[in-house]
Amino acid sequence: MSGLTLWFTGLSGAGKSTIANIVERKLREQGEQVEVLDGDEVREHLSKGLGFSREDRDTNIRRIGYVAKLLTRNGVVAITAAISPYRETRAEMRAAIGRQRFVEIYVGTPLEVCAERDVKGLYKKALAGEIAHFTGVSDPYEPPLEPEISIATVGETPAESAGRVLDYLAAHGYLQPARTVS
Questions:
Q1: What is the reported pTM?
Q2: CA-based nearest residue to 1, from 180, 177, 174, 117
Q3: CB of 133 within 8 A of CB of 142?
């Protein structure tokens, strides 16, 4: 596989990182060079000090996109797992990386399910008004209108969701069919 960006987007707690990590492992098992750019880790290391205004969120996503672009250009599969709440900024990253090398994956888990999964209690605090600018609660999340892949994690295991991503990659010529993993 030549360089590619797999852009996972969805609410906090949707399952983006869990699915992305399974996809990463399966691609590595097939001999691919892969790097995961997890939203929480990028905020800690590349975007420390940014807040949660729209401008700061867009800056964070542009930083993730820039690193993904460099990796993709150099033959690496860059997997991003960040909320990336705004369609316009995701479209900007698609254009920067290249339409043929960008696969948008929408992890469309309902807010109630994300809140149930939340071990940090952030949704509870956001719903109580204790956290301002919380995506999906007091700040908008704009779901993709035409993602390459839509995953509804309710009723499907993370391994099944990851399998759907790998199946898409094989069906669209990003992976050799003999190398796909079920």
A1: 0.91
A2: 174
A3: no
| Active site members | 84
Given a cut of 50, is residue 179 above it in pLDDT?
A: no
Statement: residue 178 has pLDDT above 50: no
With contact defined as beta carbons under 8 Å apart, do 110 and 8 qualify?
A: no
CB neighbour class for 91 (10 Å; exposed up to 12, middle 13-18, buried from 19):
middle
For the chain, the C-alpha Rg in angstroms (whole number) is 16
| Residue with tokens 């900024």, as numbered in its chain | 89
Q: What angle do CA 37, 43, 166 make, to 5 degrees?
A: 20
Round to whole Å and give the CA distance between 9 and 139: 15
SS3 string of the chain? CCCEEEEEECCCCCCHHHHHHHHHHHHHHCCCCEEEEEHHHHHHHCCCCCCCCHHHHHHHHHHHHHHHHHHHHCCCEEEEECCCCCHHHHHHHHHHHCHHHEEEEEECCCHHHHHHHCCCCHHHHHHCCCCCCCECCCECCCCCCCCCEEECCCCCCHHHHHHHHHHHHHHCCCCCHHHCCC
What dihedral angle (degrees, nearest 10) is formed by the CA atoms of 72, 77, 83, 85? 40
Which candidate, 105, 94, 119, 120, places its Cα nearest to that of 153?
105
